[in-house]
Automatic annotation (TrEMBL):
Alphabetically ordered keywords of this record: Dioxygenase, Oxidoreductase
One Pfam family matching this protein: Dioxygenase_C
Protein name per its UniProtKB record: Protocatechuate 3,4-dioxygenase subunit alpha
Domain of life: Bacteria
Family: Belongs to the intradiol ring-cleavage dioxygenase family.
Species of the source: Actinomadura fulvescens
Listed InterPro entries: Intradiol_dOase_C, Intradiol_dOase_core, Intradiol_RC_Dioxygenase, Protocat_dOase_a
Ranges of residues in domain Intradiol ring-cleavage dioxygenases: 9-100
Keyword presence, rRNA-binding: no
Length: 176
């Protein structure tokens, strides 16, 4: 017999974050980019106790196969990071823009852990300047909803990616 999932938290702010979690690379490293945004609930209010997690390839499109996400050596890149949201629902990462993996456009895999969710929700962050034609996942998303998966490039080179858990501007989430 299978036991159903149930919400017992949120404990994300106590058990999952770790020192340096949002810093996949130091902010001053050559090629470093800032990815940031806010997490919103269905009413459009910020979610102050969520946890955002990313997984990604490096600049050359290689996916790290070694452990070390929690213990990054100086200059090492694991492709994994976690950031708890602030009181205003904000999160941030210092990382590198990933290279293309296979036929698809470069992306970050994004997981969101939040109160009221039995399991994390999964989505992707694509970069606005990349060619999205031919990306197999984006091809499956209705054209009117694709913009919820594409970050906004800001002055200074940062990328903003707001995540809406429900509502009119709900981010496209993926089923696995």
């Amino acid at each position: 017999m299978t036991t159903p999932s149930q919400t017992v938290g949120p404990f994300f702010g106590h058990a999952l974050p770790y020192d340096g979690g949002p810093e996949l690379v130091p902010a001053g490293r050559r090629g470093a980019v800032r990815v940031h945004g806010r997490v919103f609930d269905g009413a459009g209010d910020p979610v102050p106790d969520a946890l955002v997690e990313i997984w990604q390839a490096d600049e050359a499109g290689r996916i790290a196969r070694r452990p070390g996400g929690l213990r990054r050596a100086a200059g090492a890149f694991s492709g994994f990071g976690r950031c708890p949201t602030g009181a205003d629902g904000s999160y941030w990462f210092s990382t590198v823009k990933p290279g293309r993996v296979g036929a698809g456009a470069p992306y970050l895999s994004v997981l969101v852990f939040a109160r009221g969710l039995l399991k994390p929700v999964f989505t992707r962050l694509y970069f606005p300047e990349d060619d999205h034609e031919g990306d197999p996942l984006l091809a499956e998303v209705p054209a009117a909803r694709r913009d919820t998966l594409i970050a906004v490039r800001e002055a200074g080179g940062a990328y903003r990616f707001d995540i809406h858990l429900q509502g009119e501007r709900e981010t496209v989430f993926l089923g696995f």
